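Readers outside the structure-tokenisation community will struggle with the description of the input data as it stands. For illustration, here is how one protein appears when written out as sequence plus structure tokens:
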Amino acid sequence: MNVQFNLYNVRMVKSSKKSLISFTLCVSLIFGLLPVFPHEASAREAEIATVQAEISDAEHAEGSVIVKFKSDVDSQAAKTTLEQTSSVKSATESEPDKITSDTAVVEVKDDASVAEAIVDLRTNSNVEYAEPDYVVSLDGDVTEDAQVSESLAGETDEDDTVSLASTSVDDPDVGQQWYINDENSRVTSAWDLQKCDNNVTVAVLDSGYVAQTDLSTNVVGSINFTSSDETDSTDTLGHGTAVAGVLSAQTNNGFGIAGVSYNANLLIVRVFTEKENRVSVIVQGLQWIVENKEKYNVSIVNMSLATTSKSQLLADTVEDAYAAGILCVCASGNKKTDDTYDVEYPAALDDTLAVGNITESHKRNSSSKYGDALDVVAPGTNIHSLSMNGDKYRSTSNGTSCATPFTSAAAALCKAANPNATVDQLKNYLTSTAVDLGDAGKDAEYGNGQVDVYAAVKAARADVKEEYSIFSPADDSALEKLKARYFNALLNKETSVDVSDLGVAAEDIQYTYSSGTTMTGVNALTALTRSHPLFSTLCVGWNSLSFYESGGTISKIKINNYSVNWTTSLIDSFMTKYNEFLEGAPVDGTDVQKAGYVHDWICSHTTYSMTTSYLPDFAIGCIANGKALCAGYSYAYQFLCQQLGLECKYVSGTTTKEQHAWNKVNVQGQWFLVDCTWDGAFTSYGSQNFNHNYFLVNDTEFAKAGDGGHAGDTDVVGNEPVNENFYFANKFWEGVTGTIDNDTWSTDAKLTGTVYLTYIANGGAFSDGTEEVKAAAEYNAVPTETTAVPTLEDYEFKGWFTDEQCTQAFDWSQVLLEDQTLYAGWSKKRKVAPVRLWGADCYGTNLATLKKDIEENGRPNGVIVCCTGHYIDSLSAAALSGLLDYPIMLVNGTSDEMNSTAQQSIDLLSNNGTEKLEVIILGGKFAISEGIATQLADYDSDSNPERIFGDDGYDTNQAVYEWGKTRGDDWNTEEVLVATGNSYHDALGAGSYAAANKSFILLANPNSSNDALIDSASNHKKAVILGGTAAISTELENSLASAGLATSRFAGSDAYATNIKFVTEFALKNGMLLDGAGISTGRDYYDALGSSHLLAKSKGVMFLVALEESYNQPVYDIISAAGGFSNAKLFGGTAVVSAETESKLNNL
């Protein structure tokens, strides 16, 4: 049922235990029941007594009940049965409150009870169920604290940043939030893995909120269900504000507290103004959240509320939320003096996540309800949060109401980590990773245990995050396998590494310093890590590792902590760039190719920077952030070369100018120097303008004079590596000779050999028909350009380029150090000037158009005949011509016979009457006379032309649409075009598109109903609207959308601008072409209409032009930007398409 409703009316209603406010929602649909007959009285009384006993202890609203009708009950049947019942009020007495489309609150008559009404409703065949309108309470107590100090309420200085377990935040109150720093919750460690950063929305079903600095930024929407003013979401209880603060106070903004979610979006839904309200109001709020899930991207709803009674309506709505992919996180309830410890509703429902409250000592708060339905527990005692009194105040809260938003925030972080996670997955992340408290395993008091935010987020990430593994053992030894496994674990920020299967003893791990001192065990592994070109000193400290041993060998490597800069986001960025590096790497190439690829990749992906936040002294900073100093360049070069199997060393030392770092790399058995810093430091990220001055050079060349770099540094010296562990001795080499690892370093080392230039025709072909030519060239020499030049029809060759898009011309003056692929560049040759098709009048132009049509497409099997006096009938012809593949012929319709030019046209089409046609006449006898129809019968294959017409042009438009559906090839079901019938320009400009795509143009009547248009349009998936709201109203557009069509509108400031919009933003993007385009006047419709079939056959777009040249400039701009057009056609003489227009088109 679609129930229409008015505004809320506020009235007081008594519950069985206390009074509460109820809100009546006036609706136009009324529900009813059949009367009770006397012979049923005794059974009815027994049922009433049973129901009364069931609800006697349940707090509910007196005088009203909730009724849900079956889905097949219409409003009239419901209204009739309601008026006949004896226990509820009729529509004239009190209109029911709508809750959902088929559910409402109805009032009980004064002389009847709630139990009586429930029995009567339940026994009626139209009713699915009936129940009391139970009372729902907010859980927990909020104490508004006194004003906080300015240092806590205001912004902080940078020195006030609070360093937590991992992530640093600058919220000054965070030290008072024990639940943020709790060792079991591990919130800050979770932030290191994932932040919400406004990518996840949590709805808060509560008492609203008070806007303030620490909250407003994260609120994306709000609504009020407690009064007629749905915009009033102001919290008057403080409960909603405190809950929202725990969940998503603005984090790391230098102000107030930190929200657990690290900036999830909040959708505020106000359903309380006192601590209690009816379930019917709660359901309205929850149902609205479900209906607006997509609009606000809601994944979670926080429900810090509870009732001891199970409401079927609330259960159904929670199930709706579950089905929509929304997790309901619910408070288990707080024990009052006279009730049990059983988990309350909706937390007790299967489709929710039930949350209990623990204290700072990880014990269940004595008021927190528990039982088999409890899922998890979370901090909910002495919770420091935001106050409804504004920025300079805080609140302290207790109860499951506080534990619930903590858990909602944890769920939000999981959703951010795995955006595709289902409700069940989110629940599993939180329950399966919880810290076990109480009895082992799940128990009634703690459920699955305390929410471990870090472990839950890690589990969520594991579902979507591929484990990083880039290190392989150097050989098959157990020690090398241990190293590879350990290094990969560092990339994944694992806290432990299982190596129990390898049988490696601690003393097997050794590291020798240049001084000769050897370390073993944990210290040796730490030294290996800190000397690794990727991990360096950035990853772990000296006391970060420990071993677990079993039977004399290491069973587990424990990584106790990571350095603060070794973050998951940094690793993820590194892996993204590293994978990009590998995509183009010549893994099977020569040493030169590998060394050159690493050099060029680093130079083109790095910008020289001294900003420490980019970690410029480290390989991972260079690769992940694209920023580096010389150390970062050199460590990155060493690491990437090693990953490609090249032996490479990091060299640090001095030049005559400053401290510096560079590399030695072993290429084809000889050691060469490489300096990526000086080759690439003066280029920007992504630039190819680096050089190779210091790539694979010897000592002498390294100190050579040149542009920048080491020019004049004749005494370059450096620390030479002495072992594989990347530490360097204090001996120097001085540019003449030296040794490294007992291999002689030759000052005149120089590589010779052959590299290859591969020429790609890039769409063209060489003289022998091939698309590729490969030519040899001398390594380290300037190449000679090939004499073979490819060709491409309609294009001119413009040289060789290093990229397929031809944006970077190849520099023929540079030496070749590796194989190079070059692509032919092309520019379009000047296009052929448009041809003009015209005659002495519109009939003559139509005749010339038909001649061209037959020349290009052959003689047709039929013809569509349109008049020149009633344009609205003729506007339906364009799409029909495409459907039938028939051209359009114009006649002087109101005359008794065709004029001589029209006669020539029909003779042309029919080969002087020898080839009969299917003749289709558009419009009634007032559009095309009976006399002309009689003439046309002589040319018709059945001697009886088909006339399609209606009472007016709009009816004719509908008649053509319906007639077209009877043909074998139906209209395009994907789309329909909608244009005004009040003028012809918009429809004309789309004529060739409509014909080419069999997309019918429905004509809208601005002065009458368009129901028939909407009905026809509903057969299609989308409506393409031509013209602004003056042409096609917003009301009609909305009606089309309501009919299920996706709508798009193309409109300009006038008819010519609308034509340009349609052509550029739609037609050309959907298969139409500039080549073969048509140019026609916008002053009349004849020429453009008659061209529809001809243009459609070559998919040419139609441009409408004016005699006033200012209107035509956009047409020139489009064609000029495309490099001109071919096979274009001008329709009409110079009186309608001026010579000036033709001249400008010719010169584009």
Q: What stands out?
A: Residues 478-559 form one domain. Residues 722 and 741 are 7 Å apart (CA to CA). The chain is about 30% helix and 25% strand. Residues 400-417 form the longest helix (18 residues).
